[in-house]
Amino acid sequence: MWRRTSEYVVDDLCHCGRNSIVKTSWTNLNPGRRYKACTKFREVGGCHYFSWIDSPMCSRAQQIIPGLLKRINKHDNEVVKLKDEVQKLEDVVEKLENELKKKRSRDRWMWTVLVLSWIVVYLMM
Ligand SMILES: [Zn+2]
Fold this sequence. Notes:
The protein has one helix at residues 59-124, and strands at residues 8-13, 19-26, 31-38, 50-52. The chain is of the alpha+beta class. The protein folds into 2 domains: 1-57, no CATH class; 58-125. A hairpin with a 5-residue loop joins β1 (8-13) and β2 (19-26). Zinc ion is lined by residues 14-16, 18, 38, 40, 47, 49.
């Protein structure tokens, strides 16, 4: 999914002396825009260090990108559902193949018994 992003700590220290962390914004106003903030940003008692890394996007990109992300996420969800369906079908095929093997083995055994019974009947005549 597009919302899964890597976050990483950088050596850049904030006002409180902690390392800052680089994240990616996925809000409609700032889709895909990276920023750095204190590791305790928005926590109770945390500090307010926040700074954009990427420059702001133009209004057209702000309009288009959220819709594209929604479409990509929708398609990703469909792919996940289809993979689940494929897995279920593969499980059914495997089960049917195993049943077919058992049936063939049983048929071979029945034919062997039938032929042997014919031989025995023939020899007893
Ligand atoms: Zn801080």
